[in-house]
Prior knowledge:
The structure is a homodimer.
Chain A: E1 2-6, E2 11-13, E3 21-27, E4 30-35, E5 41-47, E6 52-53, E7 64-67, E8 71-77, H1 78-87, H2 89-115, H3 118-137, E9 142-144, H4 149-156, H5 160-172, E10 176-179, E11 182-185, H6 188-194
Antiparallel strand pairs in A: 1-8, 2-7, 3-6, 3-8, 4-5, 4-7, 9-11, 10-11
Helix pairs in contact in A: 3-6, 4-5
The structure holds a DNA duplex.
Amino acid sequence: MHHMTIAPKHTLxxxxxxxxxxxxxxxxxxxxxxxxxxxxxxxxxxxIPGDFLGLSLDPRFGITADALTEVSLCRFERAxxxxxxxxxxxxxxxxxxxxxxxxxIAQEHMVVLGRRRAEERVASFLLKWWHRLKRxxxxxxxxxxxxxxxxxxxxxGLTIETVSRTLARWMRERIILDVPxxxxxxxxxxxxxxxxx
Amino acid sequence: MHHMTIAPKHTLxxxxxxxxxxxxxxxxxxxxxxxxxxxxxxxxxxxIPGDFLGLSLDPRFGITADALTEVSLCRFERAxxxxxxxxxxxxxxxxxxxxxxxxxIAQEHMVVLGRRRAEERVASFLLKWWHRLKRxxxxxxxxxxxxxxxxxxxxxGLTIETVSRTLARWMRERIILDVPxxxxxxxxxxxxxxxxx
DNA sequence: CGATATCTTGAGCATTTTCAATAGTAGTGG
DNA sequence: CCACTACTATTGAAAATGCTCAAGATATCG
Lengths: 197, 197
């Protein structure tokens, strides 16, 4: 095991790389994305402290991970880690739990991408990100957004313009407030309403 | 363990149901979907012989599974199966392998939903389904499509009309041929071209 | 402080959806 | 066996959501 740090905009691993390591994040945010040959990009998720990367048993990474902020993480050599697992059977159980939870998250995101309109997608993202941060940073109406507008767009299958316009409208309607490096949620109920629940 | 059969259009389990069982499919096709309260539906995948359902350790199913054709499967009681696993440690490893492979599939589908245009989505679906069947039915240019047009649309985040029009155009262009309960692929290269590879 | 990135905003446009009408297909009962 | 019903698929035309293009504003960083 080995502590390490990567700087913003630096890549931890790329799709196709040999998956010789495995990571857990201790601070910072990463973007996980799949890139098409023509430059189109789909961000499949963002990784935050407590998340694991490289849990799959695939010999190669299917996605690229790069840092949005300064990121601290622990690196484990894959082979060594697998050895450790042999001697701790319910460790594998835990890994499977994490992986199948991620699958559930992925399936929910498919609904967002396949069946939600633009405004719903942005609302879904903001609320989910907010709740996710709540569990590690505690409750607060202020939501840091370390990712840029283009990143949000690439996560939601939209363009940067659509994301920008949607957030701008919500600011005019006092649903959210612009704060440095994020937004403050003024009317969460209104956002949930948009999702039809 | 218990063999069973379900008839077309019948539901194996619904989202929110207690996940007391676990299944492996021996014949037939199922659709796995997530339903929004307003009726919109996202099909997250189709299950075919050899696939497992309910591998997640979640106490409830996140999705609904219903039969497109007559389906035969083996049901395992969850608790009993978990017991079995305790005594066969590399069984859990296998489960994790399957789950993390499904996660990779899900992430690839996110790219389709988020960043592909309509024609690319249909091409991606046809080719992937074709290759998947090839592994269990052997190579053949004829692709059975047990799912309806609406199912394909709900899988690809499109409308039934867009799917229908796309397939109709490909038939006119002799890229595919209409056959009962499926299509025959006449020009696979052309479909792959559409995906830009 | 100038240069480069990112973001915002507007206007026109295109892809895909919506709406509507028709055609095909399967199952049911006279 | 055929009419009747219900469901699914096809096709066209109009509409709309979100995209593209372009310009300006704001922020970031040596």
